[in-house]
């Protein structure tokens, strides 16, 4: 199977609205307090996110920040397009960054894994070398199985949503919240707060959060469906859902609205030191849950190889 090189693919991009950080902190904190018993949003110096418990491929989330979507759900639904296999090492450059880090949520490289899987891309390209801390999770008879990808294996299949930056340290949002009292998951709460405040001006963010206490509902994609998946309920019936335990490290990117590039608005995948991971839907232990996040604003949105024939199915 040929890996698609992003320099041969269509890439579109758009500037994003950049609210003042202090104003955003107020907007996000007040929305979180509607959905959690306790919430604080502070602007802090980014800790070294290469360290445990995060294990990112670069130290920070700053410098020429972008959100990017590669491919899209129409490459999976209604039927898989096996020719859509992308080289993630090239994606920072496709976003204008010859050196950079990328983290997010995608479909694993089935030619290597041997089947469909969830991927947690987490890699960096720098003059000093490449780092690849990406994981995949598959559905097995015994349950889900998480595996670290080899250093050289940085392909993603079908679709990927990611946050890209120079990976530098700098000011970021530190968000801590506990005990969910509302219905929104952590990221939807932030995304909808930005949409309510900024309306048609698209604001996008990305980074890492950790579910430090409680459990979460995730899905893992099983083998590709041989029958066409025609609606959200058929997709949900095909997916395998699990309840997984904290601590979970979650890689996320989200946009308050679509900047006209057919973006999926939020996508979060998680991994752990205890072998559980997948696509994050929500915590399942509202009275126990505890989130800690380090997020940054994106300056631009990049869309790589957007499927020409698109739809809204399967974007949850
Ligand atoms: Zn996913």
Question: Which tags fit this structure?
Answer:
binds zinc ion, 20 strands
- Individual helix count: 5
The CATH H-level superfamily is Hypothetical protein, similar to alpha- acetolactate decarboxylase, domain 2
Average pLDDT level = 97
Question: What structural category arises from helix and sheet content?
Answer: mainly beta
CATH secondary-structure class:
Alpha Beta
Outline the biggest β-sheet.
Answer: 11 strands, mixed
**Tell me, what's the shape?**
globular
Q: How would you name the oligomeric state of the polypeptide chains in this document?
A: single chain
CATH topology: 60s Ribosomal Protein L30, Chain: A
Number of domains: 1
What is the CA-atom radius of gyration, in angstroms? 18 Å
Which ions, cofactors or small ligands are bound in this entry?
zinc ion
Which architecture does the CATH hierarchy give at level 2?
2-Layer Sandwich
Question: How far is it from the N-terminal to the C-terminal residue, by CA?
Answer: 29 Å
- Helix and strand sequence: EHEEEHEHEEEEEEEHEEHEEEEEE
Number of strands: 20
Strand content: 35-45%
In percent, how helical is the residue content?
10-25%
Low-confidence stretches: none
